[in-house]
Amino acid sequence: MTKKTLILIGFIILKFVLQCILISPEYDLQRDEYLHLDQAHHLAWGYLSVPPVTSWFSYLIYLLGNSVFWIKFFPALFGALTLLIVWKTIETLKGNLYALTLGATCVLFSSLLRINTLYQPNSLDILCWTGFYYVIIQYFKTEKTKWLYIGAIVFAFGFLNKYNILFLLIGLLPALLLSKQRQVLAKKELYFALLLGLILILPNLLWQYNNQFPIVHHLKELADTQLVNTDRIGFLKEQLLFFIGAFFVILASLYALLFYKAFNKFKFFFAALFFTLLIFIYFKAKAYYAIGLYPIYIAFGAVFLSDILKTGWKRFLQPIFIIIPLLFFIPMYNLAFPNKSPEYIVKHPEKYKKLDMLRWEDGKDHALPQDFADMLGWKELARKTDSVYATLPNQDKTLVLCDNYGQAGAINYYTKKGIKAVSFNADYVNWFNLKIQYKNVIRIIEIEEAEPEFKETGQHFQTSAFAGQITNKYAREYKTSIFTFLGAKNDINKIVKQEIKEVTDYSK
Questions:
Q1: Which of 9, 95, 225, 374 is the one with CA 20 to 30 A from 389?
Q2: Are 408 and 421 in contact (CB under 8 A)?
Q3: Which residues of 136-157 are buried (b: 16+ CB within 10 A; e: fewer)?
């Protein structure tokens, strides 16, 4: 085994170790994770929330036992594979051992550590962006046709994981048109590869068509409720934070792409970065959508720096570029991860507030970062719902109806009573079992809607009662309440069907 291989293995082991210690055990899973895990029980070619690939991994996790270990393993694996691709890119660009070590260090001690703690499509999205860029480099270096087809497969897999990868192509195309490499656009093999990619994503496109293109509705809702609060200047500021330890390496890559002869074939990467960022800025995208851009530029920068720092007094600068990511990781460790108790964060909010980490999607500041608050209260909700469910008559005719997908997913993940909670929110709207004639309802209601919802729903039942609520004051779902409605006076299934129809009519 060579020295290079041993160092690579060391980085990968360190990656997995770090991912294991960056979350305090007092936190639950995050809201989105529960939804993604529940998709394993409803396999399809598309969902209202995400494309289908996440459900494939969720099903694999389910087969492996559905434990937290496997839930956290896969995003960590995707992060490790991203590091591996950067390593292989550096080798392709003829980087030496220093370049490999620098590139791996910059990727490891970055925001990917935070992204890779959560079971969401983002980790795989970044991997697919990096993998696609790697394929492009391989094609223009070797001009072997096979890389066009590999690129089509990588892109299709990325598309079936998260539509965000479309921005990669939109930013890359004008950059290619402005470069000598635009000659590839005249090759018939490219269009055969595009056809292959289209065939691979066609099942999802057909699913969108057959379901009235819910992605359009989802994007409009996202723009109206979340992206409207996005600050374009804030977007640019956050770009610096994602790979702040690698800032000078990425800066070096941009210089090298313009002036370093060894990168002449890859000059279009310089324009691709800026075109892609401009598109994100134009659409007021969330800052983290662009993270997949940067790992490949770390590879370019590492190779360039290893070349210019290899002789004379400059070689003494080599350790500095290795140390910088490590130095930035120290404050990152203390702030960016849910490894501090909620009580500690509440008592020491200054640094979090300074970095705008307490600002939620609603544009307001709160006690905890939103992602942290979204990792609290779920076990409590599931436990209390189970307890209420166990006391009811006609349990097999009891509908557990939640206000949002986080509540439904958490109850379904933690339940000991076999509950199948649903919601009119996100994918759960398609998962109601209307073969059951419901007589009772356990209603999980967010505190803001509790009183009017209690009155409105109560009129359809013989009895109604408050049965509990989330008491963890740091949870985003704090005071979310549990109500029971027993003995239906009206046809509950008819009411549910009408609500489903209204929610899923995306033509409105």
A1: 374
A2: yes
A3: bbbbbeeeeeebbbbbbbbbbb
Computed over its alpha carbons, how large is the radius of gyration of the chain? Answer: 25
Q: Is the dihedral of CA 267, 269, 274, 279 positive or negative?
A: positive
What's the rounded Cα separation, in Å, for the pair 25 and 14?
20
Distance CA(133)–CA(300), nearest Å, equals 12
pLDDT (tens place) for every residue of the chain, 508 residues total: 799 999 999 999 999 999 999 998 999 999 999 999 999 999 999 998 899 999 999 999 999 999 999 999 999 999 999 999 999 999 999 999 999 999 999 999 999 999 999 999 999 999 999 999 999 999 999 999 999 999 999 999 999 999 999 999 999 999 999 999 999 999 999 999 999 999 999 999 999 999 888 887 766 666 555 555 567 788 888 898 899 999 999 999 999 999 999 999 999 999 999 999 999 999 888 889 999 999 999 999 999 999 998 877 888 889 999 999 999 999 888 888 999 989 999 998 888 888 788 888 778 889 899 989 999 999 999 999 999 999 998 899 999 999 999 999 999 999 999 999 999 998 999 999 999 999 999 999 988 777 787 888 888 899 989 999 999 999 999 999 999 999 988 888 999 999 888 887 754 5
The whole-angstrom separation of Cα 299 and Cα 250 is 9
To the nearest 10°, report the CA torsion of 99, 100, 102, 104: 160
Q: What does the DSSP 8-state code read for residue 359? A: B
- Angstrom distance (rounded) from CA 265 to CA 180: 8
pTM equals: 0.93
Q: What are all long-range contacts of 69-73, with beta carbons under 8 Å and residues at least 24 apart?
A: 71/29, 71/33, 71/37, 71/119, 72/19, 72/20, 72/23, 72/117, 72/119
Q: Using CA atoms, how far apart are residues 92 and 15, in angstroms rounded to an integer? A: 23
Q: What angle do CA 158, 161, 163 make, to 5 degrees?
A: 75
Report how far residue 408's alpha carbon sits from residue 255's, in angstroms, rounded to the nearest whole number.
Answer: 50
The three-class DSSP label of residue 442 is: strand
The separation between CA 191 and the C-alpha centre of its own chain, rounded to angstroms, equals 30
Q: Maximum Cα–Cα distance for the chain, whole Å?
A: 87
Determine the 3-state secondary structure of 466 from DSSP: strand
In contact, 106 and 298? CB cutoff 8 Å = yes
Instruction: Describe the chain by its helix, strand, coil percentages, rounded to 5.
Output: 65, 5, 25
Q: How far apart are CA 23 and CA 371, in angstroms?
A: 12
Q: How far is CA 195 from CA 133, 191, 462, in A?
A: 19, 6, 59
Single-letter amino acid, residue 463 = T
Handedness of CA 376, 379, 383, 389 (dihedral sign): positive
Using CA of residue 462, residue 467, residue 473, residue 476, what is the dihedral sign? negative
